[in-house]
Amino acid sequence: MKHFVLLLTFIFLISCSSQKYYVTKIEGKKIAITEKQSSVTEIENYIKPFREHIDKDLSEVLAYCPETLDKSKGEWQTNIGCFLADITLEKSNPIFLKREQKSIDICLLNHGGIRTIIPKGDVTARNAYEVMPFENSAVIVGLKGDQILEIANYIVSEKKPHPLSGMTFTIAKDLSVKNIQVQGKPLELDKIYYVVTSDYLSNGGDNMNFFKKGVSRTDIEYKLRNLMIDYFKDVDTLKINSDLRIIKE
């Protein structure tokens, strides 16, 4: 992959009487960075210890994954989606409980936010950076039962296995949803449920506009990637829960 440096030239028109400067033209050109450019020894020597330190931290084995976690295998849910939703709820809940004296009911993330697999074998911090390279943080949104119903309908309409935890439902033959349960109990439309998601989705990203109807919003300032790394450090082996969350008739 080629990288480019954009070289810009600014031409100013100077008014002598008022000493004001005006941009009248901007020119630019791409300069390709390829293997032909030689490295600068001084720069390489300066950054080498930093690179080696970071690489050592990212390569340290933190846990073991008993099976390959892959978002491409599964119609309505995937093993990596269930795993990420489960640990996001698990790691976020104690913080939310301490701050707000309330428990998180559901976790909803987005299928597209998972960027790669977690292969079977040793797990490192590098895996977390590869799976979630973005700077998204965990946000808890209070939603009424009507919006929880919207979540179920959204998942069906999207036809994507969005990561989901704490909530189950059935897709009928006519693609309507029924038997919605939250934490094992039937959905109550007049109840407030607390849903942990990413800050991106909480603002309506990926057309998850139901989050904009939230009655409360709490940013616990915990990056999803850091949450993954902390989970890796807490366990010897990743716990993969394969229970059915979405059932199709």
- The overall average pLDDT, rounded, is 90
| Strand residue content | 25-35%
Number of strands: 13
Distance between the termini: 46 Å
Poorly predicted runs: none
Shape: globular
Q: Evaluate the radius of gyration.
A: 24 Å
How many alpha or pi helices?
6
Largest sheet: 5 strands, mixed
The helix content is 25-40%
Order of helices and strands: EEHEHEEHEHEEEEEHEHE
SS class: alpha+beta
Strand order of the largest sheet: 7-4-11-6-12
What does this structure look like?
It is a single chain. The strands form four sheets. The protein has a five-stranded mixed beta sheet. The chain is built from six helices and 13 strands. The model has no long low-confidence stretch (mean pLDDT 90). Helix content is 31%, strand content 32%. It is α+β, with helices and mostly antiparallel strands.
In short:
It is built from six helices and 13 strands.
Descriptive labels:
single chain; 249 residues; alpha+beta; five-stranded mixed β-sheet; four-stranded mixed β-sheet; 13 strands; globular
Helix/strand layout:
Blueprint: E1 3-15, E2 20-33, H1 41-59, E3 61-65, H2 79-100, E4 106-108, E5 121-124, H3 125-131, E6 137-144, H4 145-158, E7 164-165, E8 167-171, E9 177-182, E10 185-186, E11 192-198, H5 199-202, E12 216-223, H6 224-234, E13 246-248
Parallel strand pairs: 4-11, 8-13
Antiparallel strand pairs: 1-2, 3-5, 4-7, 6-11, 6-12, 8-9, 9-10
